[in-house]
Amino acid sequence: MAKINTHVEESDVLIIGGGMAGTGATFEARHWGRDLKIVCVEKANIDRSGAVAQGLYAINCYMGMQWNENQPEDHVRYARNDLMGMVREDLGYDMARHVDSTVHMFDEWGLPMMKNEKTGRYLREGKWQIMIHGESYKPIVAEAAKKSADKIFNRIMVTHLLMDDEKENRIGGAVGFNMRTGDYHVFKAKTVIVAAGGASHIFKPRAVGEGMGRTWYAPWSNGSAYALPIAVGAKMTQMENRIVLCRFKDGYGPVGAYFLHLKTYTQNANGENYEKKWYDHTKNLVGEYIDHHPTPTCLRNHAFIQEVMAGGGPIQMVTKEAFQDPHLETVGWENFLGMTVGQAVVWASQNIDPKYTNPELTTSEPYVMGSHATCSGAWVSGPEDLSPPEYFWGYNRMLTVEGLFGAGDTVGGSAHKFSSGSFTEGRLAAKAACKYIEDKKAEGIKVSEKQYTDLKEVIYKPLENYTVGRNEITGGTVSPSYISPIQGLQRLQRIMDEYVGGIATNYMTNENMLNRGLELLKWLEEDLENVGAEDYHQLMRAWELKHRTITSQCVTEHTKFREETRWPGYYYRGDHLKLDDENWHCLTVSRRDPKTKEFTMEKVPVYHIVDDKKEKKAS
Ligand SMILES: Cc1cc2nc3c(=O)[nH]c(=O)nc-3n(C[C@H](O)[C@H](O)[C@H](O)COP(=O)(O)OP(=O)(O)OC[C@H]3O[C@@H](n4cnc5c(N)ncnc54)[C@H](O)[C@@H]3O)c2cc1C
């Protein structure tokens, strides 16, 4: 193998991932740490990276406190309701009370915001969403980060966290490699903020083969946000709470603006309102949760899935009425231009003009993330003034590893943060990380050369596997001694799909299937020691796969632990089909022992710190 150069960089605050949360963290770290060295490391290029790469058409989390449109308590009630009771209300409240200031900065930085002509306020798409011309959203927040950081490293995939050799369970930095040059990068740091987004492509996608990249969630989000902390023994929460999205079929174009702004609605193939049909059935499973307003996202999915299984498909969005209005027609198309151009292309290729044809909807394969209508992620400390003792251990958004912080999709328990809330959470994490340094908690950290040179060998091994193994190939591309990243990925996706509640089983699983899934994942993990990479790009694919596999193990362990169906429409435990508040009105928390690689699970109380007076629909 060619000689690999090693670069060592020291910093005070190291941010992994320059998406929404990472740019927020980088920006805010400069505010609180004027003299600190701030470094951000990004797998792609922060100008166009993460889930917001292509842009957005709405900022989905804005309170409007200055006009008393909403208060943080209202948002906590909303998120709690949507997640069937299971959220960390301290984290949600903390994000909500700061999110407006973030959005006001976006406005100052030049993000084109739509305004309500009559009131002069931001134009609302829905109760929480405001509309933007957001194609340039990501470059705008990236600029703020670039002006704040000492250094931004693009094209570096972080593969492992470094630990302090002196003090147990304290962070020491991270390592990774440059996908273009192949160089090895060692980042020693006093604090690390993981902001590496969520996980797509762990479950088999509906679009396979040449269409595999066409998923709802960004295909490059590979679960590093979970795998990095899990590998060093940080606790995770609610990892079973994967999300399934109802979106336009094949292009996964967004439906929010259609429902909220265009007032379109759904129907089955016979033109019926199928959601009503499934009311009694759903009530039998989840009780009074079906009467909550708004109807939780998973329960709307549930009606969709049941209707399709009962033969009522395809489900359509009724666009023909709204699109007769030229203004709404324009909004409908522009909605895709700012964030999902591919949907317009799909419709063109399938001869669908929504003015004359009601387009089909579908439910997606499941994804793991912590910032959307779901809250999988790391178990973090909350803020001092809000969190009950079990949720607080010194520094806001610090994981159970000292000096390791998280934000955005990384952080579990706090759903409905979206782009603005993730940026805000990055700011909160950075503020706490600076305080951690100021409090002298990061003194005397030692990372030995041995630690990072040992890791170097591990990281580049797939190149070695390939270089040696390819000599055994006598024909074709299949080697007896290594597997390629795509072969490994397809195997992972089938395991998750068939055993852990993917589309193959209509999101159904049970304890026996989960046990079998865990067994197969273990064997996959063993085989991944023999993954082969022919170049640095494939090396990235190999490490993405390894991160996806650890994330999948954690998801499967959590799904097995929670013996109820809390979120029908996201997944079903066939052996425990009903929601069980008596035994499972709690958060699930896991820890993987870094030495034995075994997971241990526990239940942690869910504290409702905001009253529920507005949660139920007035009768
Ligand atoms: C399809 C879709 C539509 C959405 N629509 C909206 C919307 O309309 N309005 C709204 O407000 N929000 C929306 N959201 C939510 C919003 O995009 C997310 O909440 C937000 O991007 C999460 O921020 P994050 O920083 O955690 O992740 P991201 O923004 O995804 O950033 C993660 C970053 O980490 C990098 N990274 C990953 N792994 C590594 C690694 N190993 N090493 C180095 N870097 C790494 C990635 O390249 C990426 O830049 C949408 C999300 C999706 C997926």
Pick out its properties.
seven-stranded mixed beta sheet, 19 strands, alpha/beta, 35% helix, 619 residues, disordered C terminus, 17 helices, four-stranded antiparallel beta sheet, binds flavin-adenine dinucleotide
Describe the structure.
The protein has 619 residues and is of the alpha/beta class. 35% of the residues lie in helices and 15% in strands. The strands form 6 sheets. Strands 1, 2, 5, 6, 7, 8 and 15 form a 7-stranded mixed sheet that branches. Helix 13 crosses helix 16 (536-561) and helix 14 runs antiparallel to helix 15 (511-527). The protein is globular. Flavin-adenine dinucleotide (FAD) is lined by residues 16-22, 41-44, 49-52, 56, 58-60, 157-158, 195-197, 216-218, 220-221, 224, 371-372, 408-409, 417-420, 422.
